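pasting for ref
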Amino acid sequence: MSKRTGKVAESKSVVVTANDSVFVGLDVHKTSVHAAWRLNGREMGTWVMSADVAAVARSVSRFRVALKQVVYEAGPTGYGLARALRKAGLPTEVIAPGKTPQPANADGKSDRLDCRKLAEFAEKGLLKPVAVPTEEEEADRQVLRLRDQLTNKRRRVKQQIKSLLLQYGVPEPPGLKHWTKAGVAALAELELRPQIRLALDCLVEELGELTRLLERAKAAMRKLARREVYRKKEARLRTHPGVGETTAMAYLAEVYQPQRFRNEQALTKYLGLAPRVSRTGNTTRNGPLMKAGRGTLRALLVEASWRWIAQDAHAAAVFNRIWHNTGKKQTAIVAMARKMAINLWYMLIRDEEYRAAA
């Protein structure tokens, strides 16, 4: 093995030709990238370099003539490296971390071991790549995720306010149950000790700021919906009963490049709406949902499904049948959310509006 000097000593003495096969695994971090390369089924070496996109591209390009695949796991560093390597003509895939094989008897963990395993698994075809969004798709998605983050932060502050009142035995003012303007304004009239008043005022001020920021995020989302790339698609999705602007835009942002899904099962697995199926002999059991995708989008689809069954008699009949068969209302509404997700997918790939069941 080569020492961690930032060079690949072995590559200087090994002649790589077009008849060879090279696989490179990368373990990407904020300031450094650990790399390993394999040649024709043999591990040849590892090295470390700075997390500079141009430096990584130059380093990996030395294997270009025989390079079959460069892989790294999806993580906080995003997709910029993958896009840059692809632009440089290097076959690069970003791997789903949850789908990476995990040995039963792992021999420890380190950045060097991780990149070696990635290179080996890539060579054996054991890795599951994810779709790499364009810069524009990733930026647009961030607007929707910002809305989700602000919504969650505001919800937590509301909970903190109610917890504070409960802790000190202060009755909630009228209107606070639904967080009306009058209810929030009434918080300023409560008679409290100065210390408690300070804590409550700070929370109320934070709530107001988060509300203003959330309105900015919603305005940016509505602006996105009017852009040419989204306008027709968003309007098409909203023809589905129960689907509003937020659900439509969240779906478009998260299910980018919808043609990449080969079937309904691939879509629902990506969204985390596919049940875990266990088959033994002649017995088949459906377990809990597989953990995948964005929980916020699942929640939006479930919420939209409640509106769907309230507006569509056929959908309500399907919901009631599933509820009767399972005995669980939550299972039934999740099944409807799965059906809605599939419907929206077909509407996108077939370029058609919603068609009600006969």
